[in-house]
Amino acid sequence: MEGALDSPDYEVAVAELLGSVLANANDRDAAAIQAHLGSIKQAIEKEVDGFVDLLFGGSVSKKTYVSGLSDVDALVVINESSLAAADPAQVVAYIVGRLRERLPNTVVEPDGFAITVRYADGVVQLVPVKRRGEDYLLPSADSSTWSRVRPRAFTDALTAVNQAQNGKVVPTVKLAKIALGGMPEDRRPSGYHVEALAVEVFSNYAGPTSPKAMVTHFFAEASKRVLTPIGDRTGQSRQVDEKLGASGSLERQILSDVLGRIGRRLQNADGAQDVEQWKRVLGVET
Question: Which structural domain, as residue segments, surrounds residue 223?
Answer without folding.
Answer: 7-26+153-281
